[in-house]
């Protein structure tokens, strides 16, 4: 603790450091009176004596001794300085030649003979067919395969991909091996090989759809399209009819007024209305009569009647059974009728089932919308192939065909749903609290 | 009581089905991935019979899948590829976000990809199964190859579709498999017979395109992915069956003919080969080059159950088919610029003709407009400036109508500027008593070999003959036409089909047949007389209904005649 304080004081007293008390502090800036210190005490030697200059001098001396081995002032002149007199002259050669251009000596090679011998040997060997080791290795190295990128080549829709005979090669590997290594493909269930619909893949358009159609077939096709439109119009009309209201039922100002004033205005009709309502009440009361207990006589009578009734019924049934023998023919006829009915119903049901097979099944949220008939009006028909304007899009046609054959579920373009954020508003009670 | 109580919805149909979201969670895939997987594997949603039971009491519309199907999906190896792809996307996005470009490059190079070969093999275990489903594949292939290469869907897919459809067309040309063509307002319908299967496909016109917005492109792209794989394998097998090289190469002889000086004008070097192939103007190279053999006569192998008649009928059919395949043999066509080139080139070459076009239109034209040996030039304009003497100038409908009629129709009806006869649909099978348009009757008559003398003069406008002659001939032809119509109506009212013809040479043979018929008719009349009142009433009703159809047909025919007469009168007035 004491050491720390000492350090602080020393640091503060050195010139480079700022005093710890901030200059904005009012107490320090105003002419700080120098405190009287006793420098004779050992404690105050370190604190209040300034030894920077001595320290510097000693540092300098030490530095000189360290670096140059002794004080510079005590060194001799020669050790510190030297006299620069320039380079001494070199001895000149006896003869001076001009520089050579294409000197024959420039072409000299020190080991020309050796090199020549080596080249001749290599030639002789090459003529025989023996290739030196280095060249052999170079030749053996495979050339860099600068082919199409691996990912592109392997892709399924690479336009240069190879096809092979997929149905020709049988059993490329041992089935046991395949099974043990887990590479055997699972067998496809038989049910999946059935087609989901009996409709053909490509349905040819009616003969009226030709680019230069025969008059009647074109009319027939137009008639079909017309029928579709008529049906649509019928549906719309039906809706309108269901929503229609009578003109008399519409509210007018008079009826509005009457409705608003109802019950507020006193009239003479009130007395007459009161009287009939009373009578109704009395009648209602009378209906809620209390049932009396039945007497014994009545009970016995009822029992006897029941018994008689039962006997009558049984005897009747017996006679009926006996008479049925004579009614055989009519019974047969009625049975035959029933059988025929059931048969016809069965036929109808079978026909309906077959028709159902050709219909698209309901496979999802949306119902199948039949595509519009592709038809050109009489004035749109082109006289020649050059002037023909194609109708309908084959892409759409194929898409609808897939839906019709139950290969995919009917789909619609995803709509852009705007999701509005919920606003959070604090309840008034909460607002008061927070 | 007590013990194990049966709870509702724990067994039976309620446990056989699973909703779409549950299935997706079981597979741990996102919804688009689940959809893609279902489309690729051929798993379709089912509508249960008793929706209330399956939906546990509610009738809300939901998508249901069979639980066994979803369990089967769990074993599919490409499910793991989907998950890897999801992780790849996540890593790539992170690398982009941190702008670590080296990482981005590395990730892109090792992008996970999957192949659909094993799925194709699993869904179509035999080649014939694959052929049965190839209709859809062809339609999608042709549709995608007409898309613009803007990058909305992978350009690679479009290129692959183009390559596969060109290969298919080349195969059909080489095997002469095309049977019917129909030009409709939607597109062109083709029907070919390949290995006994009738395959119908639809090709859009080259010049229309507005992409509808309510079609899910991802779904269509997934279908196309599967179908391109299937189509490729089918093509390979078909080429193998015909002994052709796959991937297809042009015949070396034909290739040398096609060598031109200015090949660079058409396409880049890498693409020029594919463009030449797609030009469909030259034949393909074979694996084992075969010398042109003469048509070998088929040996007759009489089956045990067959009699001579059936065999003869079959032979006749074969011969007809052979002649049908060669209707354009020996003819040289030239296609003008305004006509759709690819469709016509395909059809003409399918039936043995030679075809060429202007050099500026496309690569691969073999001869020029000025070639003297051209027999037919296909033009769609009202008039052509320079006309050569020894060639016919016809409208493109002639080619298609000939294909549908299976013979070479007379060219006069299809000259330039002539009002074309209607293009009838070959896909319509007319039953007995149905209305048959007179054009079709004419064609059937031509097929039978009868030549109605009126054909040359019927509906022409550009004629050098004088009006008087015209009028006379017109009167004549009107009479003849009326007679013809009356005869046909009589035949129809008697209930006989128009196909039955009584040729004079065979009268003796049919005598016993006719006697039999007469006997039968008598018996029928007797039976009718002996019917009870009630039954007779029913019978009359039925006959009335049948005759009503015939009466309607007659009415339509009369209407048509009136219409034609009105047209002729109008034309006469206009000319005067």
TrEMBL record, chain A:
<feature type="compositionally biased region" description="Polar residues">
    <location>
        <begin position="12"/>
        <end position="31"/>
    </location>
</feature>
<keyword id="KW-0690">Ribosome biogenesis</keyword>
<dbReference type="GO" id="GO:0008097">
    <property type="term" value="F:5S rRNA binding"/>
</dbReference>
<feature type="compositionally biased region" description="Basic residues">
    <location>
        <begin position="32"/>
        <end position="45"/>
    </location>
</feature>
<feature type="compositionally biased region" description="Basic and acidic residues">
    <location>
        <begin position="244"/>
        <end position="261"/>
    </location>
</feature>
<dbReference type="GO" id="GO:0005730">
    <property type="term" value="C:nucleolus"/>
</dbReference>
<dbReference type="GO" id="GO:0006364">
    <property type="term" value="P:rRNA processing"/>
</dbReference>
<feature type="compositionally biased region" description="Basic and acidic residues">
    <location>
        <begin position="294"/>
        <end position="311"/>
    </location>
</feature>
<dbReference type="InterPro" id="IPR011687">
    <property type="entry name" value="Nop53/GLTSCR2"/>
</dbReference>
<dbReference type="Pfam" id="PF07767">
    <property type="entry name" value="Nop53"/>
</dbReference>
<keyword id="KW-0539">Nucleus</keyword>
<dbReference type="GO" id="GO:0005654">
    <property type="term" value="C:nucleoplasm"/>
</dbReference>
<feature type="region of interest" description="Disordered">
    <location>
        <begin position="244"/>
        <end position="281"/>
    </location>
</feature>
<feature type="region of interest" description="Disordered">
    <location>
        <begin position="336"/>
        <end position="361"/>
    </location>
</feature>
<protein>
    <recommendedName>
        <fullName>Ribosome biogenesis protein NOP53</fullName>
    </recommendedName>
</protein>
<dbReference type="GO" id="GO:0000027">
    <property type="term" value="P:ribosomal large subunit assembly"/>
</dbReference>
<comment type="similarity">
    <text>Belongs to the NOP53 family.</text>
</comment>
<comment type="function">
    <text>May play a role in ribosome biogenesis.</text>
</comment>
<feature type="region of interest" description="Disordered">
    <location>
        <begin position="1"/>
        <end position="46"/>
    </location>
</feature>
<feature type="region of interest" description="Disordered">
    <location>
        <begin position="294"/>
        <end position="323"/>
    </location>
</feature>
<feature type="compositionally biased region" description="Acidic residues">
    <location>
        <begin position="264"/>
        <end position="281"/>
    </location>
</feature>
